[in-house]
Every structure is written in structure tokens, then in C-alpha cells.
Known about the structure:
The chain is α+β, with helices and mostly antiparallel strands and about 140 residues long. The protein has a single domain, classed as Cytidine Deaminase, domain 2, CATH 3.40.140. About 30% of the residues lie in helices and about 20% in strands. The chain has 4 helices and 5 strands. It has a 5-stranded mixed β-sheet with strand order 2-1-3-4-5. The longest helix has 15 residues, at about 10-25. The protein is globular. The protein starts with 9 loop residues before the first helix and ends in a 16-residue tail after the last helix. Residues about 1-5 have low confidence and may be disordered. The chain binds tetrahydrodeoxyuridine. Tetrahydrodeoxyuridine binds near residues 29, 36, 54, 63 and 64. Tetrahydrodeoxyuridine binds near residues 29 and 96.
Amino acid sequence: MAERAVSLDGRQADALAAAAVAVRAHAYAPASHFHVGAAVLAADGRVFVGCNVENASYGLSICAERAAVCAAVAAGVRELRAVAVATGLDEPARPCGACRQVLAEFGRDLHVLLVGNDGKRRETNLAQLLPEPFTFADIPDSAEN
Ligand code: THU
């Protein structure tokens, strides 16, 4: 399997980071008070955003990254190029394991921008964060095989 990180030009990276920072303002996090914003860049150039949405039944909370992926898929997207994740931390946070697996479904070569306090940025890629995801190719009878 190819593990090539798709490059992102500076302008796209800035726009994606800004979208993640902006949507973070809408995070609903009364339990953790940890506000997260995410923005995904689709292969066709469109950007979709999501924020974390917590619930009084804690286990039902959804992360910002997965909310952004769902928005993109609902708009017809099947391939993602990049994701930006914004938190208010001095050291930008990385996506949780569940979100890494969901992101891998739509972007094996995904570029990952981690945005912290004051716009402080770190760049990585999904192949590094999740080297061996479970995929439909692992299911013998799936439609992908
Ligand atoms: N959270 C995200 O939105 N993304 C992550 O990758 C990690 C965690 C949210 C879930 C929960 O609402 C809060 O952060 C604390 O875990």
C-alpha cells in the first residue's frame, strides 16, 4: 500500500487551519470544556467543518474530526486530502484513535495539520499517526474485494 503524504500548498493549509479555528467556537463541550474544531479538505477542493458535540450520556459524544468527515460524506465526498484540527492547547493535540481510523477510510495519504493556541501549527500525516489501519480490503467478502 502506498504511504505517500499528499503535499498541501501554503494557501490551502492556511485556509484549512483558519476554518478549523473558526468552527471551534461552536464546539459543544459542557462536560470536558475541551473545545475542538476540525476542517477537512476534499479532493475536489471543498472544505467541510465539524466541532465536538458532547452529550449528557457521555459515550454518545462525537469528536470534531468525525463530525467534519460526516459533513463531507453527506455532501458526496469520498476522498479527503487533508484535515486540520484546532484546540486551545499550547502543544497542538493529535486526533484520537477512533478519528484516525475514520479518517483513514477516506484519506490514506491524508495530510494532518495540528493547530494550537495562537495558531501554533504542527504538520504530520495519517500514515504516521495510524500506520496500519483496518480497511475493507481486510474483509474477504466486502464489496471492495
Ligand atoms: N475530542 C475531539 O473532538 N477530537 C479528538 O481527536 C480528541 C477528543 C473531543 C471529544 C470530547 O468532546 C473532548 O474532546 C474531550 O475528550
